[in-house]
From TrEMBL:
Name of a matching Pfam family: Pro_dh
Catalysed transformations (reactions): L-proline + a quinone = (S)-1-pyrroline-5-carboxylate + a quinol + H(+)
Protein name: proline dehydrogenase
Taxonomic superkingdom: Bacteria
Pathway field: Amino-acid degradation; L-proline degradation into L-glutamate; L-glutamate from L-proline: step 1/2
Assigned EC number: 1.5.5.2
Domain (Proline dehydrogenase) ranges: 46-298
Top-tier EC class: oxidoreductase
PANTHER family in UniProt: PROLINE DEHYDROGENASE 1, MITOCHONDRIAL, PROLINE OXIDASE
Entry's transmembrane regions: none
Origin species: Streptomyces albidochromogenes
This protein's UniProt keywords: FAD, Flavoprotein, Nucleotide-binding, Oxidoreductase, Proline metabolism
Co-factor(s): FAD
Length: 308
């Protein structure tokens, strides 16, 4: 399977240099990354709003090795919020953050990440929006959930992400559904060992549906992160059975993938949020998008050949 190989490559500095220098890379990266600067991404937020869509914005970058880099990540989100405030787009755009980018893996990282993310959550609340904590590999999740719980004491709208392929996730879903929090469910895009995660696609899909049933039946706000037409249809049916109105859950899809479906769901009255990443440190995010779907990798290879 190519997926695990690509995910392993996402941690390789040698592959990072090779992919970054490849002639076709810029064209393909542009499919998944909305731009490098906040000035480039704000018009995309405005365009999405004009189409009846909402967005969640991710300033890409995970390989943080110093506290100064973690502070810079915090400041990048605060700059983004200032731009959204000035344009009155706060209600259409939330933020997604990876705590590794806020220093979670450094010495004293749990406290550092909490201290860095809190002002971002506060600033987001001031302009009428919120923040969702992205899930990363399984070793980081206890820290992420603890930070999520702490932030929700003052900002209960703070969201978090759970990953269907992890064995632990059904229990996490029950706890989160009972607490009434905003929960995005995704299949999972990190290379995880068989000791903690399903490896078979069919098993992951079954787990996704089981977890979605828990979320739909609970007190929280489910956010369905999937491009899979079958899972989207299942989500709609489970929401109907649970008696949920269209504004009591939402769909989320990645920028650059199934864009016509984004507009179709919004036109049907669904809340449709586009996960929109931007920034210069795009490599890890980009490689996970290639790993998720073989067609993405073929598109990349074809572009490289064409440029050559």
């Amino acid at each position: 399977m190519l997926g695990p190989v690509i995910l392993a490559a996402s941690r390789s500095d040698k592959m990072r240099r090779f992919v970054s220098a490849a002639p076709g890379t810029k064209q393909v990266v542009g499919r998944f990354i909305a731009g490098e600067t906040v000035e480039q991404v704000v018009p995309i937020v405005q365009d999405a709003a004009d189409k009846g869509l909402e967005v969640t914005l991710d300033v890409v970058g995970e390989d943080i090795t110093t506290r100064e880099q973690a502070f810079a990540a915090r400041d990048a989100y605060l700059e983004l919020i200032e731009h959204l405030k000035g344009l009155g787009l706060g209600e259409r755009a939330e933020m997604s953050v990876k705590l590794s980018m806020f220093g979670q893996a450094l010495d004293g990282g749990h406290e550092l990440a909490l201290a860095n993310v809190r002002p971002v959550v506060e600033a987001a609340a001031e302009i009428g929006t919120t923040v969702t904590l992205d899930a990363e590999d399984h070793t980081t999740l206890d820290s992420m959930f603890a930070i999520h719980e702490e932030l929700r004491k003052d900002y209960p709208q703070t969201g978090c992400v759970i990953q269907a392929y992890l064995f632990r996730t059904e229990d996490d879903a029950r706890r989160l559904a009972a607490s009434g929090s905003r929960v995005r469910i995704v299949k999972g895009a990190y290379k995880e060992p068989a000791a903690v995660a399903f490896q078979d696609k069919a098993e992951i899909d079954k787990a996704y549906v089981r977890i979605l049933k828990i979320l739909m039946a609970g007190d929280g706000y489910p956010m369905i992160g999937s491009h899979d037409p079958r899972l989207i249809a299942v989500s709609q049916e489970l929401a109907r059975r649970a008696g949920r109105k269209l504004d009591e859950y939402e769909f989320q899809m990645l920028y650059g993938i199934r864009s016509e479906e984004h507009v179709r769901l919004a036109a049907e009255g669904h809340r449709m949020r586009v996960y929109t990443a931007y920034g210069t440190d795009w490599y890890g995010y980009f490689m996970r998008r290639l790993a998720e779907k073989p067609a993405n990798l073929l598109f990349f290879v074809r572009s490289m050949i064409t440029k050559n």
